[in-house]
Amino acid sequence: MKKTLAILLLICMTMGLVACSSGTTATTTTAPAGTTAAAGETTTAKKDIIVGYIAKNTVDAFHATVNKAAQEKLDGLVKDGTIKEWHLLDGLTDPVTQVNLLQDALNMGCNAIIILPAESAGSDPVVTQCAEKNIPCFVVNSMTDSTAEKATAYVGSDDVQAGEMMAEFVQSQIPAGGGYAHLQGIIGNSAQIQRGEGLHNILDKDSNWTLLDGAEQTAEWQAEKAVKFAEDWLTKYGDKLNAVICDNDDMSSAVQTAMNAAGRSDIVCIGVDGNVGPLTMVKNGQLLATVYQDGAGQVTKAIDLMVDYFNGKEVPKSTMIDFVLVTKDNVDKYLAS
Amino acid sequence: MVAKSDRKILGMDQNDFSIFSRRYGIGVVMIAMIVILAIASPTFRTSGNIVSIMLQVSMNGILAMGMVFVITGGGIDLSIGSQLALTSVIVGSVLTSTGNIFLSCAMAILATTLFGFINGFLIAKFDMVPFVVTLATQLVIRGAAYVISGGYSASLANEGYKLIGSGKVFNIIPYPVVILAFVGIIAFVLLHHTKFGRYVYAVGGNVNAAIASGVNVFWTRVRTYMFSGLCCGIAGIIMTSRISAAQPNIGVGYETDAIAACVIGGTSFAGGVATIPGTFMGIIIIGLIYNGMNLVGISSYWQTITKGLLIIGAVMLDMFMNKKK
Question: Is the Cβ pair B243, A6 closer than 8 Å?
């Protein structure tokens, strides 16, 4: 019986590992195929570029989109022989994990790093260690503290712009002004700080708009927490609540749904990201607008810059990809991709 | 535990054998994983990678060394993730205001040990459920970390402090690994070779029997939580140094890996059963799951599933062993 259990355990393990190794054979077979093709076709000096792609995570809708875009792009580069291989490493939204993954990447022989930082301060050692070891490091989506000095290039979007766009949209929808609430992401995150900054840049100057008392709280990017706050505020402020501005659109779409259900579809809810759920709501007319962050555009640009870098071209230190205001008029373009 | 059995297996009495096979069973899994990974990934075999694995498991290892005392004493400590955050912000604020590395580490360890004491005091004095108490203190401690830091994370520029996480002995063995070994030895001696260790087993195995034999149950339990708090402080100092940032939102979910390492290593949730070498194997196995699967290129979804399956397997083994007795 004891042995049976031990064997059972072993089977569990091997099954897991077999599942993995079958996955590997798939990637390893494509890699040599790519390189041989490259040897035959390209005349430029063949470089053994191995890319370590340290994702922020693989579970958020936004990051799933970014990772997918990166995967398509990098697989393409492996096929045409520009790079030898690449590895996706999951940072689990944890800076400590990301620092550990850099070690793994270097052990695997990676000589180029693409990172989507989990934290501006905590993930910074990835960038600084790359700089110490002279490994080109491309930072995507959000900056770490020393990105400006030490990273090879940064591609992202200016979150202050996103905050300003949200504020301006609210102004345009309700010209008479009123009271608004602000639901924040996790405090201390650069997106949270900068989106808030942009929002206040615009609305603090506008005497028609007031931030309702106690109505700026963190819902930690989470829809259900956001809804709880919004419902409480609706009870407390009633008609005085005219707009709910959220740091992401998981929150804004959930809040809009709750407001619509409460018979207050006049309340303008807006957020940032452009996830599929909110975009679908825009298409169906349940949500007025959302601010689209072009994550796929950011990461593909970063990969382009990496290729330029290895071709000896000068790459810009910082590249900004614009946010886009998505309304019913242009939603189809973003929903399709 | 009364050694009434006179049956002998492989020259050991039955009780010894059951403990041995518990260790041995998980050792087989560990060795199997190492062999399979060594075949599947050439990178896995490199010395650089072995050092990386040890470095990566050092924090979870230290946490698990504290956790194993708590679980063996019949408790659970869910507050360790928050304790890491508290350590991080205390180190950060003391270091920025005084620049004294020793003072900042001492203050952090003092604070986490104090919270460990509070955990233990509430549980042992009022006989409150450990799960609930530490679930609540988890929130209190996390909140305290936010209050101290004002919600902001801050980079630490102190080069000396960075060395704790990035320095190496003889240019090979990273300091965190040395610290893990040190904590491991202390935990081994404490649990297996002191009166306190025997009391922990006694309290976790059978509280009434422990009381009847004059064991100070209150202090035994309180001390297990204080040791866990101490370990959190040490792990937190390493973590803060590794990311060179004071980060109040860090450490979420770290209790899962620490508990998993204990359980995989043969620690019984019923209390009273655990070994430090077993826990150490549990730590290595968790590390192998993360590192090995990354090298082989398995998505993190499968890593999560594997971790879950392993825990179920370990608990099954544990239940089976207990029934046998």
Answer: no
Greater confidence, A143 or A198? A198
Q: Cβ B40–A9 below 8 Å, yes or no?
A: no
Task: Give the residues across from A183 on adjacent strands.
Answer: A217, A246
Size of interface A-B (CB pairs under 8 A): 156
Nearest CA distance, B291 vs chain A (angstrom)? 7
pTM of the shown model: 0.77
> Residue A159's closest CA among A120, A115, A198?
A198
Residue B34 forms contact with A (CB below 8 Å): no
CA distance to partner chain B, nearest, from residue A162 (Å) = 21
CB-nearest partner of A188 from B37, B152, B309: B152
Task: Determine, for residues B293 and A121 on separate chains, whether the beta-carbon distance falls below 8 Å.
Answer: no
Interchain contact, A10 vs B29, CB within 8 Å: yes
Q: What are the structural domain ranges in chain B?
A: 57-292
Say if the Cβ atoms of B55 and A103 lie within 8 Å.
yes
Length of chain B: 325
The pLDDT averaged over each successive group of 10 residues in chain B (325 residues) is 51 63 71 86 82 89 94 92 93 88 93 95 91 93 90 80 85 90 94 91 88 89 94 94 86 88 86 87 88 77 82 74 58
How would you classify residue A220: left for phi > 0, otherwise alpha for psi between -120 and 50, otherwise beta?
left
Q: Do B313 and A8 touch (CB under 8 A)?
A: yes
Question: What ipTM was predicted for this assembly?
Answer: 0.77
Contacts of A124 in chain B (CB under 8 A): 155, 243-245
**CB < 8 Å to B29, chain A:** 9-10, 13
DSSP E strand stretches across chain A: 50-55, 85-90, 112-115, 137-141, 153-156, 178-184, 209-218, 241-246, 268-270, 272-273, 290-292, 318-320, 324-326
The correct CATH number of A159-292 out of 3.40.50.2300, 3.30.390.10, 3.20.20.10, 3.40.50.1010 is 3.40.50.2300
What integer pLDDT is reported at residue B314 of this predicted model? Answer: 72
Interface test with A, best of B56, B243, B324 (most A CBs within 10 A): B243
Q: Is B246 on the interface with A (CB under 8 A)?
A: yes
Give me the residue spans of the domains in chain A: 45-157+296-321, 159-292
What's the N-to-C CA distance of chain B in angstroms?
A: 10
**How many CB atoms are located within 10 Å of the residue B19 CB?**
16
pLDDT at A29 over 70: no
CA pair distance A303, A158, nearest whole angstrom: 19
CA B300 from centre of chain: 22
Class of domain A45-157+296-321: alpha beta
DSSP H helical ranges for chain B:
14-40, 47-72, 80-98, 101-126, 130-149, 159-166, 175-193, 195-205, 207-212, 217-243, 254-264, 276-296, 300-324
Domains A45-157+296-321 and A159-292 share a fold: yes
Measured CA to CA, the distance from residue A145 to residue A148 in angstroms comes to 8
The dihedral sign for the CA sequence A121, B161, B223, B284: positive
DSSP sequence for A21-46: HHHHHHHHHHHHHHHHHHHHH--SPP
